[in-house]
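Hey all, sorry for the wall of text incoming. These are the two entities for the joint prediction.
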Amino acid sequence: MKRVLPGFGLTMGFTVAYLGLIVLIPLVALFIKAAGIGWKEWLEILTSPRVLAAAKLTFGASFFAAALSSVSGLLVAWVLVRYEFPGRRFLDSMVDLPFALPTAVAGITLTAIYAPNGWIGEHLAKYGIQAAYNPLGVFIALTFIGFPFVVRTLQPVMEDLGKEVEEAAATLGAGRWTVFWRVILPMLVPALITGFTLAFARAIGEYGSVVFISGNLPMKTEILPLLIVSQLEQFKYGAAAVIAAGMLIVSFALLFLINLLQRRLDWQHR
Amino acid sequence: MSITIRSIHKTFGSYRALEDVSLDVPDGSLTALLGPSGSGKTTLLRIVAGLEFADDGPGKVLFHGEDVSGIPAGKRGVGFVFQHYALFKHMTVGENIAFGLTTLPRSKRPKKAEIGDRVRELLKLVKLEGLDKRRPHELSGGQRQRVALARALAIKPKVLLLDEPFGALDAQVRKDLRRWLRVFHDEIGLTTLFVTHDQEEALELADQVVVMRNARIEQVGTPQEIYDQPRSPFVYEFLGNVNKVALNENSNQYIRPHEIEVCFAAEHDPANGKLAKIHHLFSAGPVATLTVRLEDGQFLDVELSRKQLDDLALDVGDEISLKLGSAAP
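and here's what came out:
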């Protein structure tokens, strides 16, 4: 078959080899390791209270953190795209900091701030809220690392929106609120879901920033990645692989569902 | 409904977009704002729409004698059509057209069935029957612009404002849509103001042409007045092809290519003619264009009918005599 774009064979070959090497082989190795254990033990490990509690915290906190990041990210992206003000570029670069900062540094910093004697923690303590060493702390750390994904996926889409559709809606009698709900938001939904998904996926796998602020109390503030590491430290490689494999399957299913939802909501594909 | 514009000033920072602009758009007319980019025509249209507000001062916009200067776009009752359509991509064609009605407060909003009827009626008006379930990206440029027009008309606007409505379309579609808009305007009789930088479009379509330049109105008149009696060299040059003949150091004569008379060099009369040599000849189509060179080295364009060209049997290199007529300043 003749193709107009040259290099299909070469680039496709590279793609397959690269994905195989980087993504597939490690994952296969993981499943092989996990498969070394019988089905009964699989079930036993995955349904143990400690694993279930960690899973609930990991997926739950990740979901809510990604949800909060979506709302705040939408707002920040809006401000950065729509308004001209001194220091805009500076703020814009600040958004990327959670990407660049070593997650452990972020974790330690957040812990210091949110600990009961920290800058923010001491004020929260007055109201009886304890952030650090609590699920709330996990949520805070996951919000911190997920937020740039939302901003960065929304920004280019917002820039493309243009003022004209808003003006068109305005001349048709729509108030600011209607314009936002009926015109702007629906146009941003596909990108918003993408940003949410990225933040969510990143949060599920996050380790470094969480371990410090969570305090790692089993059944309370322990997340799945940490549970995996602690299994490894006890040389329980099989159990670690099983938890990892289970986490992977759930993550994949969730991401797949989100993808389906996005297709349904995406006006470009309807 | 007539539009009256009185001494509008508009500045953006230190840039003057409009300077003391006054204009009357008669009820039911189709008026073109014509000018090069940066002349202020779009700003003027946006001020009429309420998408932009004039600088503080005596400036006013009136619809049918009623001052609307302080009223925002949404309450002004204007239909506005953008150059790039500005359709809501996530809505169907029908939802787009119904937007202005579905966004009304509940007390004023027509019933669902009524809105449906209105949408069908508008689709028929813009010749897009049956396309209400499509999405904008499934339509051609010309169709999208007609959806935008139907959407603007759905709110029963007092005036219709179009910003370079054919600017994003290709030549053929543009011509068709232009003709269609003229017929359409005559049918519905809505006072319409449109912006264009295409002089042919303005002359062919409008009842009244407003030529703008450098934040001011240069001339207002019917297409014929503007073309035949341009009030300034700018209008002369901006509308149609024109030759600028240097008479002496500080005076020029403007003459349209078709106004020049051609005869054989043998019939040359030095009293009211100039000798010239044919430099280039372009004769595809009903009108032939000659590029000729005068004895003093100036080049001129001359237009004559194909028949005239054949009768004279002219060719490149021939010497001819030109009558430039009475000097227009």
